[in-house]
Design a protein that fits this description.
It holds the Pfam family Epimerase. The protein is an alpha/beta fold. It contains nine helices and twelve strands. Strand 3, helix 2 and strand 4 form a beta-alpha-beta unit.
Length: 286
């Protein structure tokens, strides 16, 4: 039996992981705690094998008034929680970081790509990584997971915006691009595998398939039973617009090289079509 502590009671990933491992009640026992006050500091963690640290600010912001808060939560809290876990004999600490640490100046991220965050959000996540990686030792394994965009039933961010667009708009640009994404069930299975394997180090999980934004919108509209017309534009028309942030986020290329996402055990539960079916129909655990 693995005793797992999830830090952050309102985390999408944390709550979905809890739901996922409930399929094996004799193998995993999950507890969750809030990090919104200091009560966690007095809690006894000696009974836990794993801490899954998902508490953090996970949304991009350019509001400089929030910069101090981002570092306080994503860097300082992460280090403080890891220190407590190590001090109290927890054997594995999993930190949920993000692809955002690499920034968006590169299109393809491979084993040679160095982190280069665009802003204080990405840098605060990176500083959290740097603050805990030196804690690695024989009896304390540090795991840093950098997923790309996570989507699934109840997720926030760009996917639900695209899904809404797929239903409401009759026309969408047909433009070829590639983006790395990961369905929530693939991610939660990956986390389970990392725990089973007592893994350590950096990990970059993703779906098997890269996602083309236009094809994703087409798939969503198909699942929803909506007709959408895909309008082709000359490449030379859209390419100059990729310098605009919102256009780049939707139609730019942003991928992990598949080599850095390989793992010796399969963690892909759903292919792209299956994941869209589950997401759009609200059927999380099949």
């Amino acid at each position: 039996m693995k005793n797992i502590l999830i830090t952050g009671v309102n985390s999408y990933i944390g709550n979905k992981f809890d739901e996922w491992v409930k399929q094996w009640p004799d193998q995993y026992n999950v507890s969750k705690i809030s990090m919104r006050n200091d009560d966690w500091k007095a809690m006894d963690w000696t009974k836990f094998d794993v801490v899954l640290h998902v508490a953090g600010i996970a949304h991009n912001s350019s509001d400089t008034k929030l910069e101090e808060l981002y570092y306080k939560v994503n860097r300082d809290l992460t280090v403080e929680v890891a220190k407590k876990a190590k001090r109290e004999g927890v054997s594995q600490f999993i930190y949920m970081s993000s692809i955002i640490v690499f920034g968006t100046k590169v299109e393809v991220i491979d084993s040679n790509t160095q982190p280069n965050p665009d802003n204080f959000y990405g840098d605060s996540k990176l500083q959290g990584e740097l603050g805990i990686k030196e804690m690695q030792e024989e009896k304390f394994d540090v795991v840093i997971v950098r997923p790309p965009m996570v989507y699934g039933n109840g997720s926030k961010g760009n996917y639900p915006r695209l899904a809404k667009l797929a239903v409401q708009t009759p026309v969408f640009p047909d433009f070829k691009n590639n983006r790395s994404m990961i369905h929530i069930e693939n991610l939660t299975e990956f986390l389970k595998v990392l725990i089973d394997d007592k893994a350590k180090g950096y990990f970059h999980p993703q779906n098997t398939e890269y996602v083309c934004t236009s094809e994703l919108v087409r798939e969503i509209s198909d699942v929803r039973g909506k007709n959408i017309f895909m309008l082709s534009f000359p490449k030379q028309f859209i390419t100059p617009l990729l310098n605009i942030g919102v256009v780049k986020k939707m139609f730019g290329n942003y991928i992990y090289d598949k080599e850095i996402s390989t793992y010796h055990k399969n963690y892909i539960v759903n292919d792209l079509r299956q994941s869209i079916d589950k997401t759009e129909r609200g059927d999380l655990i099949g």
